[in-house]
Amino acid sequence: TGAVYLYHKDGTEWTQTRKILGSDVEVYDNFGQSVCITGNNLIVGSKADGAAGGSGAVYAYMMESTPVGEDTVPPLAGDFDGNGKVWTEDFVLFVTQFGRQQDDAGFESIYDLNEDGEVWTEDFVMFVAQFGKTSGTAKTVAELSPVGKNQNAELSVSIHTRATTSLSSEDREFTVELSVENVTELRGYGLTLDYDSQSLEFLGATAGEDNLLNKAAGATPLFLVVSNPDRPGQVWIANAVSDSKLAKGEGLLASLSFRTRSRPSDSPLPITFSAVELFDAQLHLNSVSAENLMKQLQLVPGQNRLAQNYPNPFNAVTCISYQLAQPAFVTLKVYNLSGQLVKMLVKENKPAGWHSERWDGRNSSGRTVASGIYFYHFTASEFSKVRKMLLLK
After folding, report:
1. What is the pLDDT of residues 24-51, one digit of tens each?
2. In this predicted model, which residue has the larger pLDDT, 59 or 299?
3. Rounded Cα gap, residues 110 and 127, in angstroms
4. CA distance 272 to 274
5. Nearest CA to 176 among 262, 274, 254, 240?
6. Which helix (H) or strand (E) holds 117?
7. Cβ contacts of 22-28, under 8 Å, gap ≥ 24
8. Burial 150-159 (b: 16+ CB within 10 A, else e)
């Protein structure tokens, strides 16, 4: 036999308010084995070893309770691993719960951010709004995550331009594909992209066709793309599988689309990646350096092309632009209506990229030519193109 005593605290004094015997289990069965603290009242449940109404042992259960006060940091919505920051590892965890309802096995209410009994699109939108936020107890991933299984992973990038037929804004669109190799076990990844928003426009990102995570037949229901609201030109990207089909080997991680805001130069692209975070099945981390990936890459056209001169007609100087998909020996000549050579503008090797030449309406002797129609002929290896222009005075 035994008993449980309930007490009430008044100031520093405790006063017994109730005694519960093992035979009272039927009366207090609603307590079960629960314990709670309400104000200054300590409530414990009772349970008899014997049948209801009979004798038996009485158990008291105690738990610690921390009141929310001025020194308590409130929970950060979306911080599922409790490290004080809503980041890639939280996204990986969120993906594993996406689509589950409260009646499903394994459902965890912490991921149901809008508390409607289902982890769905609304919760993802709320999670995206929280992404990147921190609390006062934030710790870095490196402080919390043991070294993962992808320590030999290496990154690579490639650039692809659109092969269009005119020098429109579309001609300056390009994609950067980020790939990885030597992966042992990949459940998800995250990366931070920085670019010069003055010279580039970010058009969006996708996981890309036949990406590494999907090659393993894994389900990737969500692809995270979040622009940092506090830093123009910075984007957070993450992807993860929602099942147990992990990726390995090599393949594409993400395809990023951009448009240049002006004619591209021969300088390296103003795009950088911070270290890419790779997570294995246990969410153990490997940070793969991507600092020097873009330094040796330049944007080059998808094909050779000669543009119409601008302005046209012109009365003083006009500009003739052309582009080379590969280094080539280039000639650019101006002819009159009689087919006579007026001036050789270019006759030299040129690197791949975008180029332009100016013609001031003078011939090879430096004399100003008469008004009228002229032709300019461009050659680059096997490529040849002729256009006409009108000089007015």
Report:
1. 544 444 344 444 334 444 444 444 444 4
2. 299
3. 12
4. 7
5. 254
6. none
7. 22/46, 22/48, 22/49, 22/50, 22/54, 22/55, 22/56, 22/57, 22/58, 23/48, 23/53, 23/54, 23/55, 23/56, 25/52, 25/56, 26/52, 26/53
8. beebebebeb
Task: Say which residue the tokens 């270019």 belong to.
Answer: 346
Q: 48: which 2 tokens?
A: 């008899």
Alpha carbon distance 310, 306 (integer Å): 12
Distance CA 105, CA 346 (A): 72
The first and second tokens of residue 200, run together, are 């580039």
Quote the pLDDT of residue 8.
61
Q: Which residues are paired to 8 by β-bridges?
A: 15, 41
How big is the chain by its Cα radius of gyration, in Å?
35
In the chain, how many H helices and how many E strands?
A: 4, 21
Per-residue pLDDT tens digits for 47-86: 444 444 444 444 444 433 444 444 445 678 899 988 888 8
Instruction: Please give the structure tokens belonging to residue 366.
Output: 């430096």
Question: Three-state DSSP class for 64?
Answer: coil
Rounded Cα distance between 46 and 32, Å, is 6
> Is the whole model's pTM more than 0.85, yes or no?
no
Q: How far apart are CA 95 and CA 290, in angstroms?
A: 25
